[in-house]
Design goal:
The chain is α/β, with parallel strands linked by helices. Helix content is 37%, strand content 17%. It is built from 5 helices and 6 strands, in the order E-H-E-H-E-H-E-H-E-E-H. Strands 1, 2, 3, 4, 5 and 6 form a 6-stranded parallel β-sheet that branches. The termini are far apart.
Length: 203
């Protein structure tokens, strides 16, 4: 009798995660939180992460079906990473009750890269912790046929909670929140990857 160890199946391979840093603002706090999250991801054997930083991409706000050579080169910086990802974490602050323009621009320049993939959110801001930006992003990604996971990680008055070395001063609660969010993301990432291997998403 043949036996199969389910842990050896392709569906249990690590989820390829694209971590998107959504702010390119001068003096931004996003990289501190990104490093904090990456340190948690590195403790897991079910996720492999690549970072896409909007500060490193110069995409024009005028969308085009025939982009110039310069724009094509910028798209080539991020397109393969987005296309190859099984899932995404979007790290966003809240600007004026919503999310940053460079993040929307990055999203809008791509389409198939998001389809039938899960998206989780880590947000930061003042009293709202960036949660209003997250609610707007859920609507955007729904239009792109992506699936957003329920649980988020949010940092209210984020700067006060990290020390000068980027360490969270009281990590128990955010660590637990990150674990719950990443567990959901891995489940969705593997499940949708397996489903698409059997039946491509038609949309």
């Amino acid at each position: 009798m043949n036996s199969t160890n389910p842990r050896n199946s392709a569906t249990d391979e690590p989820v390829r995660l694209g971590l998107i840093i959504g702010s390119n603002r001068e003096g931004r706090f996003g990289p501190v939180i990104a490093d904090w999250l990456l340190s948690r991801i590195r403790e897991r054997d079910d996720i492999e992460a690549d970072v896409v930083d909007t500060a490193d991409v110069r995409l024009p706000t005028a969308l085009s079906y025939s982009p110039s050579a310069e724009v094509t080169a910028e798209l080539a910086k991020v397109g393969p990473t987005l296309a190859g990802a099984d899932a995404f974490v979007v790290l966003t602050p809240e600007y004026n009750h919503s999310f940053p323009a460079p993040l929307k621009n990055l999203i809008d320049w791509h389409y198939t890269e998001w389809r039938a993939k899960p998206v989780a959110f880590v947000s930061y801001g003042g009293l709202s912790g960036g949660l209003r930006a997250v609610e707007h992003l859920r609507q955007v990604f729904a239009e792109l046929h992506a699936v957003t996971v329920r649980d988020t990680v949010s940092f209210h008055n984020a700067g006060a909670h990290f020390d000068d070395e980027g360490r969270h001063r009281d990590p128990a609660a955010p660590d637990a929140a990150a674990k719950g969010m990443l567990d959901q993301l891995v489940w969705w990432g593997r499940t949708l990857r397996e489903a698409k291997a059997v039946r491509p998403y038609a949309g």
